Amino acid sequence: MKDPAAAGRTADDTTPDDAAPDGTPPAIEAVDVRRSYDLGATTVQALRGVSFTVAEGEYAAVVGPSGSGKSTLMHLLGCLDRPTSGLLRVGGRDVARLSDGELAELRNREIGFVFQAFQLLARSSALENVALPLLYRGTPRAERRRRAADALGAVGLDHRLDHRPAQMSGGEQQRVAIARALVGEPRILLADEPTGNLDSRNGAEVMRILEDLNATRGVAVVLVTHDGDVAARARRQVRVRDGLVELDTARPAAAT
Ligand SMILES: Nc1ncnc2c1ncn2[C@@H]1O[C@H](COP(=O)(O)OP(=O)(O)OP(=O)(O)O)[C@@H](O)[C@H]1O
Ligand SMILES: [Mg+2]
């Protein structure tokens, strides 16, 4: 419990703790979230009670040693996974109350996710890869193609619409993945080591694109990085260790 007034609150309570003054819930709110992996003989406690809020328009870098729980946290925030316990609200919705289908729909609407290894469909063109989230949404084909082309234009790839992933450089593939994350106009973009497979020049270009999207479109960005320079450029730094948030510059008093 955060304070005496919160006594008696349950995870079912519908009023978020960190709502903005106008009552808008934070983009993502996690309270005492835990995630353990049951391996039969043993259980790995990957997250051991993390509270974490992503506000509208935020730009945060998550750092920490290998195995500390960064990807586990990102997968939870991105609705790619569910907590073992704790409260997780995305776009004001308690994910524990959603069916798998509803969770997928929430993810599709609210979240763009960029992976270290791009995760593009090998046999599909850049345009088809980027249009995919809109296909799941039922957007008509002509609009899908128009919006996918716009998103690819926004990452400087107008000239690569028909290329398949193997026909593009690593930096281009990651820009396609960013376009795919953006095409549905999510409020939140989560990126797990987006520059991890890129050389420094392409890495810098990807970072420039993410910073620009945050500045010009107000998309909240949370990214995991091992690069100290990248982390230092973010407005907010979050350090994870042993499944706990050890430091969060947005919550200096709560980093215990
Ligand atoms: N599917 C899984 N089953 C069992 N254990 C897992 C699984 N995924 C992750 N873990 C364990 O959970 C812990 C946290 O893993 P996680 O991938 O979140 O770390 P990370 O901070 O992203 O590390 P890295 O910097 O190497 O990517 C690790 O001990 C890992 O071995
Ligand atoms: Mg990881």
UniProtKB/TrEMBL annotation:
Keywords: ATP-binding, Nucleotide-binding, Transport. Pfam families: ABC_tran (PF00005). SMART domains: AAA (SM00382). The keyword Magnesium does not apply. Signal peptide: none annotated. Residues 1-26 are annotated as: Disordered. InterPro entries: AAA+_ATPase (IPR003593), ABC_transporter-like_ATP-bd (IPR003439), ABC_transporter-like_CS (IPR017871), ABC_transpr_LolD-like (IPR015854), MacB-like_ATP-bd (IPR017911), P-loop_NTPase (IPR027417). GO terms for molecular function: ATP binding. Residues 28-256 form the ABC transporter domain. The keyword Cell cycle does not apply. This is ABC transporter ATP-binding protein. It comes from Kineococcus glutinatus.
